[in-house]
Design goal:
The complex is a heterodimer of chains A (643) and B (359). Chain A has 643 residues and is mostly beta strands. Chain A has helices at residues 2-13, 15-18, 54-59, 65-72, 423-427; strands at residues 49-52, 76-79, 86-89, 98-102, 105-106, 127-132, 146-151, 159-169, 173-183, 187-198, 203-205, 216-218, 224-236, 241-255, 269-285, 289-306, 311-329, 334-349, 356-372, 375-386, 389-390, 394-401, 408-419, 439-454, 457-478, 485-508, 511-529, 547-557, 560-569, 572-573, 580-582, 585-598, 601-610, 629-638. With 359 residues, chain B is mainly β. In chain B, strand 3 and strand 4 form a beta hairpin. The chains are: A mainly beta (643), B mainly beta (359). Strand 31 (580-582) of chain A pairs antiparallel with strand 1 of chain B.
Chain lengths: 643, 359
């Protein structure tokens, strides 16, 4: 009886893992234990998730999350180059409208409301999950586009394991990644350390000097350095209690080079950022009630300097995040989840007149009803507060038809959403506007997923249509009275489109092949505006491509593995009235690896070629990007599974 | 066997698809729409500043006789962007000189086909131009406390005049160049409330006049007096004012103070006859040079718009006004007659900041 209830509860937790999982490579080896990817315990009726296969993560420790997101997910990343600022656009929404979570803790900067993905080394992350649109409401509101959730995971194996990975690459790139883990079925510890950096002095064709005979120039002042340490502890008892403590400390330095049109002053612009994040996550699995409590402290210290403009900007952020979630299973068909959250943020910045503090929190209640094995309905209601202001009632309704054993799954949802202005919007000096209203809106989506397994071939195809309607969109504008800029609620944006994917994988004997293609169409336009004579009406938002996609292919034969990815981006407008644009471009990346195993010691040799076809391209106007470049790596592992 | 064949087929497809991306694109930089062929002649050059560091500034050319505007003239005729923030243009002996502020360059452009024939790099932050002789053009600078002197015939900087202050707009008054210190950026310890006088022949500073904080524009009227408009500083601590200076005595003879510290009047211009001042203070105002006070009612109302720059046509006396909308998109240029009636409007580039009349 108890055994059955254990199974039931674990099964209820697993939908986060199983539901709409996009397998990149079907592993025919049974997993040794239950991997709890997310301690989040809300069921997924009608809420779609996408996971990035952990194989991709372990194959690219030297990359940053921005490269993984642009190469393997529908998220569009606007990047200034390797080691430079990278922000996301998810379903046409902006970077402030995508919440980023680490171990279920929201980590977007309360100052800017966004996250710089170039600061996240893949090495520290074991799993990435995307929750598009309304699905993101589970964790945090304000993400009209969706959430990107990253976490560290253990497999609870009883052993001691270590790995050392060293990489060297073009433009002075070097990376050292070391990991050590020890534990048993009840306790696990993992320590990870890395150092990486690059001179980044790539040569590029400067088309801004002469279009027909562009000179070849060298990128100057683009160096960066990152180093960090992450420590995880996992504890569990016989089966009903689990604790995960994670600590991540990192130091980042980067020079910021000018555009191709601005005179280069050596050493002019630079940024250094140190952050420390500590999260604690406790879950108790009971007979009828399961609850999860998490608490985190996030510290961020960013210093930006521009010598010529005489700017030395110091910004220190401290955040305390807390959430408690509880699930009560009334019976096998119905469960209720209630959650409360409370966060406190404190910012001390040279750009604010005083120290800014903010208290925010939320309460939500959701019902999950499964009247039949093939039908799941979720209804949720959420309320948030920020300081003294309460949000309106934020509803969500989702339906899912089908299940993991069915070949066709349909899902749909409709939800409200709401985003508070960031602290910079309210308090920046000069210009901060404390009268700003929150952005609000609603989103809808509907999708289908089809799976077919024949002999040794597996096929998956899926498509989702979505629409995001956002009002009171915040834009900074010069004030009509004062001469400085101030944010205002000015626009109404509707983002709609289709996300589609197709995947084929098969294995025959010792070789396996998997191919996956993704294509997104996003129309994100301004439908009304409070600005007179606004030429951006009905025009696409800047730097949001209408068409984008990627193709990934993986071929494995015995110890040899070949990985190829191809990214395609359509036109991106650079002016709000769409009178300027960046042309489409393609990028091909290839990776070859060879693994050897001697007893418990493994060796992995890798060679990677980025921008294989040496394409001349720019992601952002007048910011050069490197041509073909390479990196090579050696990994030595002890007692770790090779992938 | 069947699987093997399938394997090969799929790999071929993948490789074929991958080759879709093959080949570098010559046109990988920003593509600019909205341009048409340039024909030289009488007209108005409009300098669209664009956003700082975005490189989306441009030059437009408006022909009053045909009431047509051509945008992105430089980009079209030179196949490259002019740089970051084109600021000022001066026409001298069949050539146009353009200061590109954040690129630190001066482009020398042939007027008949708008092709750039030379570029002077290496200036700190060049702002406004004053051609003083066939081989000398003064260039003021925001970050440097010196005025650069360029020789357009050899396309080089021939010297510097150390002024001790950041310099901005500059006009010729007889044998002197009068310039104003708009910003403190080059010298945080010295206040930006100075008007500096340089002798053109000797290229030496001969005098300076203390005025109100943050002067932004100056003109000479029909009586020979110099008018300077000061905004009082962007932190709104001082009342803006309009000052009249006698160039012979170099004394401020009249000062008109604006009613509110939060106002930011700018773009002082003068009409063809030299007897009416025109300036921007959210709306467009006109004032007789012998008026006893500032005008209370605007000539052209700016409510709902974001008026940014003014120019007065030296032939027709018509007033050109730019509306930057939200600083993120192509601005609008409105053209009014000298009584404030709207005669035409057109879309130019991003943030039209300066009008230069080739008439």
């Amino acid at each position: 009886m108890r055994y059955l209830q254990h199974i039931l509860l674990i099964f209820c937790l697993l939908p986060v893992v199983i539901n709409a999982q996009v397998y990149f490579f079907p592993d025919t080896i049974p997993l040794p234990g239950i991997t709890v990817v997310s301690t989040h315990i809300v069921e997924n009726g009608g809420l779609q998730e996408q996971k990035v296969d952990s194989i991709i993560l372990s194959a690219n420790p030297g990359s940053s999350i921005s490269e993984i997101l642009s190469g393997f997910t529908p998220v569009f990343i606007k990047t200034y180059g390797q080691g430079s600022l990278a922000t996301s656009s998810f379903r046409g929404a902006g970077a402030t409208q995508t919440q980023v979570l680490w171990n279920d803790v929201p980590i977007n900067s309360p100052m800017l409301g966004q996250t710089d993905f170039s600061l996240f080394p893949v090495f520290f992350i074991d799993a990435i999950t995307l929750n598009s649109g309304a699905n993101s409401l589970k964790n945090a509101s304000g993400s009209f586009g969706g959430n990107i959730s990253m976490s560290s995971v253990t497999n609870w194996k009883k052993n001691i394991a270590a790995s050392l990975h060293q990489e060297l690459g073009s433009f002075g790139y070097h990376g050292t990644f070391f990991s050590f883990s020890a534990g048993n079925t009840k306790f696990q510890s993992r320590t990870r350390v890395f150092f990486s950096g690059a001179e980044n002095d790539f040569s590029f064709t400067n088309i801004d000097k002469d279009r027909y005979n562009p000179p070849s120039e060298q990128r100057l002042d683009a160096q960066y350095n990152q180093k960090g340490v992450a420590q995880d502890f996992w504890l569990r008892d016989g089966g009903s209690n689990q604790l995960h403590i994670a600590i991540w400390a990192q130091d980042n330095d980067r020079m910021i080079p000018p555009t191709t049109l601005v005179l280069h002053h050596p050493g002019n612009e630079s940024q250094s950022q140190q952050f420390t994040r500590i999260t604690g996550n406790y879950t108790h699995f009971g007979e009828h009630i399961t609850f999860n409590y998490r608490s985190a402290w996030l510290y961020d210290n960013l210093v930006y300097e521009n010598v010529i403009s005489e700017i030395l900007s110091t910004n220190v952020t401290n955040s305390f995040i807390n959430a408690l979630e509880s699930k009560y299973s009334i019976n096998s068909k119905l469960s209720i989840v209630g959650s409360v959250a409370f966060d406190h943020h404190r910012v001390s910045s040279s750009n604010y007149p005083d120290i800014a503090e903010r208290n925010q929190g939320s309460m939500s209640l959701s019902f999950d009803y499964k009247p039949f094995s093939w039908l799941q309905v979720t209804a949720m209601s959420k309320e948030e507060f920020v300081d003294q202001t309460w949000s309106p009632f934020i509803p969500l309704l989702g339906v899912k038809v089908g299940g993991k054993d069915k070949s066709v799954t349909l899902h749909g949802n409709i939800a409200g959403n709401y985003r508070m202005p960031s602290l910079n919007d309210l308090y920046w000096n000069p210009g901060g506007n404390p009268d700003l209203l929150p952005e609000k809106g609603y989103s809808t989506e509907a999708g289908v997923l089809w799976r077919k397994k024949l002999q040794d071939i597996t096929l998956t195809a899926g498509a989702t249509v979505f629409q995001n309607d956002i009002q009171n969109w915040i834009q900074w504008l010069p004030d009509s009275v004062f001469s400085y800029w101030t944010p205002q609620n000015l626009k109404h944006v509707i983002a709609k489109g289709v996300e589609s994917q197709l995947e084929m994988s098969w294995s025959a004997g010792e070789s396996t092949l998997a191919i996956k293609g993704m294509y997104q169409y996003v129309s994100a336009t301004i439908v009304s505006s409070d600005i007179q004579n606004d030429g951006s009406l009905n025009k696409q938002l800047i730097y949001v491509p209408q068409h984008s996609g990627n193709i990934q292919a993986r071929w494995k034969y015995r110890q040899l593995e070949l990985f190829y990815t191809h990214q395609l981006y359509g036109k991106r407008f650079t002016a709000a009235d769409n009178k300027r644009y960046m042309p489409p471009y393609y990028l091909g990346d290839c990776r070859i690896s060879y693994s050897l195993l001697y007893g418990r010691t493994g060796f992995l040799l890798t060679l990677k070629a980025n921008n294989l076809f040496n394409a001349d391209y720019q992601a952002i106007a007048h910011q050069p990007m490197p041509g073909r470049h390479f990196s090579a790596g050696i990994r030595i592992t002890f007692n770790e599974n090779e992938k | 066997m069947k699987n093997r064949a399938l394997h090969i087929l799929i790999i071929t497809i993948v490789v074929a698809v991958a080759f879709l991306g093959f080949g570098c694109d010559d046109n990988f930089g920003e593509v600019v729409l909205d341009s048409s062929p340039y024909n030289s002649g009488e007209g108005v050059f409009i300098l669209n500043e664009g956003n700082f560091n975005s490189g989306n500034g441009s030059i437009s050319f408006y022909r009053p006789d045909s009431a047509k505007i051509i945008n992105n003239v430089f980009y079209r005729e030179n196949s490259r962007p002019i740089g970051d923030v084109p600021q000022d243009i001066a026409i001298h002996q069949g050539r146009a000189f353009v200061t590109v502020n954040n690129s630190g360059t001066i482009e020398i452009i042939r007027l008949d086909d708008f092709v750039s024939i030379g570029k002077i790099p290496g200036l700190a932050s060049p702002k406004y131009l004053l051609p003083v002789a066939s081989d000398r053009v003064f260039v003021t600078d925001l970050y440097s406390d010196s005025i650069a002197v360029i020789n357009p015939e050899i396309a080089e900087v021939s010297g510097y005049i150390n002024v001790g202050y950041s310099t901005d707009r500059i006009i010729r008054v007889g044998g002197e160049a009068w310039t104003i210190c708009w910003s403190q950026l080059a010298h945080p310890d010295k206040v930006n409330n100075q008007l500096i006088i340089v002798n053109i022949d000797s290229q030496q500073v001969v005098d300076s006049i203390r005025i109100t904080k943050e002067p932004n524009s100056l003109v000479q009227d029909a009586n020979g007096n110099i008018w300077v408009l000061c905004s009082g500083g962007f932190m709104n601590t001082i009342f803006p004012s309009l000052l009249r200076i006698n160039p012979a005595t170099r004394i401020v003879e009249a000062a008109f103070e604006f009613p509110s510290k939060t106002m930011s009047p700018s773009m002082l211009c003068i009409n063809k006859a030299g007897d009416k001042l025109i300036f921007l203070n959210k709306s467009i105002y006109q004032m007789d040079i012998d008026a006893g006070q500032l005008p209370s009612a605007p000539l052209i109302d700016g409510e709902g718009s974001l008026f940014y720059a003014i120019g007065v046509d030296p032939v027709s006396d018509w007033i050109y006004v730019s509306d930057a909308i939200d600083y993120q998109q192509s601005g609008i240029v409105y053209i009014y007659d000298n009584e404030g009636n709207e005669m035409d409007e057109c879309r130019s580039g991003i943030i039209p900041g300066n009008f230069c009349f080739n008439r």
